[in-house]
Amino acid sequence: MVHWSYRAEAVQRLLPPGLLVDRFEGRAWVSLTPFEMASVRGLRVVPLPPAVFPETNLRTYVRLPDGRRGLWFFSLDVTAPLMLAARAIGVPYRLAELSVRARGAGMVYTGRRRGAQGVGYRLSIETGAPVEDVTPLDDWLTARWGAFSRRAGRLLLTPVHHEPWTLRRGTITELRQTLTRAAGLPDPGPASLVHLSPGVGPVRLGPPRPVS
């Protein structure tokens, strides 16, 4: 996960009515999160092929006026066509060519969005030390238990349940990306924070419900 700090106004203008940009010490945050999905099950029962596939999301951190917090996805790139079914509730999945591979003491992630010339990224990260003392910002960025989407003019909130992330620090050795610009964001400055994780599981999604 690569995290950038942004002016709150630059993020707020891209959010739908009813959502407020969440801030940490006055700043908004945007994160590029490449990872692999495994053993995905439809309706929590039926295994969906393929067994393992990469996904990359560009997300920000939001809240409702009543204080409920969650994620807002600017984009979710994926190689598995079946995931496009989530568009029915407004989740912006797009097909892409993605790869995740280990290289030495780190990881290399690449992506190229189909049907969108020049939209993609290449990211190389060296793995650092385990995060033994989780900072308030580490927790604020990773302990999010809901995701918002918008369909037919209505905001929906999907609960997300999983164990806490096991985090390590990371150092970027290469990063070229156009995902933020494609989302309508200004080009970010240097990454403020980098996390790696061996993953979490299982991840359980509750039924999406309209935000009243």
Task: Considering the chains and any ligands shown, give keywords for the structure.
212 residues; mainly beta; Acetoacetate decarboxylase-like; nine-stranded mixed barrel; two-stranded antiparallel sheet; 3 helices; 50% strand; globular
Strand and helix map with partners:
Layout: E1 2-6, H1 8-12, E2 20-21, E3 28-38, E4 41-42, E5 46-47, E6 52-63, E7 69-78, E8 93-103, E9 106-113, E10 120-130, H2 136-142, E11 146-151, E12 154-161, E13 168-177, H3 179-182, E14 193-196, E15 204-205, E16 209-210
Parallel strand pairs: 7-8, 7-11
Antiparallel strand pairs: 1-3, 1-14, 2-6, 3-6, 4-5, 6-7, 8-9, 9-10, 10-13, 11-12, 12-15, 12-16, 13-14
Structure at a glance:
It contains 3 helices and 16 strands.
Domain module count? 1
CATH C-level class is Mainly Beta
Return Rg in Å.
16 Å
Poorly predicted residue ranges: 41-47
Tell me the span between the first and last alpha carbons: 31 Å
Structural class: mainly beta
